[in-house]
Design brief:
Radius of gyration: 21 Å
Strand content: 15-25%
Distance between the termini: 31 Å
Number of helices: 14
Shape: globular
Length: 439
């Protein structure tokens, strides 16, 4: 029988579950936190970390990523993506079904879980994707955080845009439904109106605020009709935020990306097609309303929608350019920098990026620094600012829409299951995460 893996983190600024800050020690044994106290006397310790001056947070749970494996590994794969997660303080992720083959039945779900067990440095879970005719699979697939429905911005089998097909999914079962809410009919109409325009800035007009609002209204209507657990992915508009502010059932949650909080359509002038994503970047007014909705609890948490493409793919002429941008390496530092600027508190960032995600998806023992919780932790430096540099990124696509931004709160040490997976610029590629469970 192997000896227990024991780790002692000394004199960190610990963000406690109630949001308060305590300078103290954290002791982990094997995969769990066993003690949190101002000072821990422990004689037998495999490893100690002197965390003086650093802030200890629960590891980030990123609930929406596209890691491209299988089938699109030239953009990203589970190993490179999980290295990027470790560097960014992300200790768990939930990945989307638009890989090749699509994750729409148990077999490709099992395949992803097997790949992840061999390759992922952090913890993992995989959505099952809805088609117009795979309802039995949606009801039976295990383990999965939920059903992903692309109401728009998709083509092929994963596009489910007809109300009849959508209603058949909402009407049966109790599993969480996560929607990409854009109205495909309006997008198609707007594409015709703006055909032959190659300025990427038109993307935000083609997939406009109204396209998002129409789909969110429909998803809410169906959710209310069947009292079905609904999660609205990457909310992007002021109109959607106000809709939820007026009428948000207790079983509905929503997320926002750092991109939709911190970037807007002016980014097209600076970074061109690197700013292209779905749903698109919006206006400064949308930024402000989304921030307020997040602070007020109308929006529940943060996700990156990490969706890498190669620079060669992004260099094509619009509309041939793919939508999406990477995000797992920068999300925590972006949000902590916003906290240092007074846009929110560090305790709010912890809730939005860890605890609230664990609660929404029923992930046990994640998202807090307390005895009995999993030892998924990140030590960050809030005293040092450093720019986002392309050459330092670990994502396979090797670019960021935030290149050059001067950020604080970068991960110094990331711990997954009590093991140090990232420390001062070095990734420990021997660590492996575990499959997440969902209650």
């Amino acid at each position: 029988m192997s000896s227990p893996q024991i780790l002692l983190i000394r004199q960190a600024r610990i963000i406690l579950p109630n949001g308060e800050l305590m300078i103290g020690d954290v002791l982990t044994r094997d995969r769990q936190i066993v003690e949190v106290a101002p000072e821990i006397s422990q004689t037998v310790v495999a490893r100690q970390i002197d965390a003086q001056g650093l802030t200890l947070l629960p590891g980030v749970i990123d609930p929406q990523v596209h890691f491209r494996e299988p089938g699109l590994e030239h953009k990203e794969d589970l190993f490179t993506a999980s290295c990027a997660c470790a560097k960014g303080g992300v200790t768990s992720f939930l990945e989307m079904p638009n890989t090749r083959p699509l994750t729409t039945t148990q077999q490709p779900l099992d395949d992803k879980l097997e790949r992840a067990s061999n390759k992922c440095l952090v913890n993992y879970g995989f959505f099952i994707g809805a088609t117009a005719d795979n309802l039995p699979d949606l009801l039976l697939a295990e383990p999965t955080p939920g059903i992903k429905i692309f109401m728009g911005s998709m083509h092929g089998q994963l596009l489910v845009d007809g109300e009849t097909a959508l209603e058949s999914i909402f009407a049966k079962g109790s599993r969480l439904i996560a929607v990409h809410a854009e109205d495909q009919a309006r997008i198609n109409q707007r594409r015709q109106e703006f055909a032959n325009i190659h300025d990427v800035a038109i993307h935000s007009q083609i997939q406009d605020n109204q396209a998002a609002l129409l789909a969110t209204q429909l998803a809410l209507k169906l959710s209310q009709k069947y009292q079905r657990r609904l999660h609205i992915l990457h909310l992007s508009t002021a109109e959607e935020a106000e809709l939820l502010r007026q009428d948000k059932p207790s079983w509905v949650t929503a997320e926002v990306t750092p991109q939709h909080l911190l970037l807007n359509a002016s980014a097209y002038e600076q970074i061109g097609t690197l700013a292209q994503m779905n749903p698109p970047l919006r206006s400064p007014h949308d930024n402000e309303v989304l921030w307020q909705a997040l602070r007020d609890g109308v929006i529940d948490f943060i996700a990156t929608d990490h969706a890498p493409h190669t620079l060669e793919e992004k260099a094509q002429e619009y509309p041939n350019t793919p939508s999406g941008m990477p995000g797992v390496e920068t999300s925590l530092a972006l949000m902590l920098t916003a906290a240092m600027q007074g846009k929110c508190t560090i305790a709010q960032v912890v809730n939005w990026m860890s605890k609230a995600v664990a609660v929404a998806y029923g992930i046990p023992n994640k998202g807090a620094i307390a005895p009995g919780y999993d030892a998924d932790l990140v030590l960050v430096d809030l005293n040092t600012y450093r720019p986002v540099r392309r050459e330092e990124l670990l994502t396979k696509c090797r670019w960021s829409p935030f290149e050059g931004w001067n950020l604080t709160g970068w991960a110094v040490t990331t711990i997954v299951g009590g093991e140090i997976v990232y420390d001062k610029g070095q990734v420990n590629t021997q660590v492996r995460g575990q499959a997440l469970t969902f209650l």
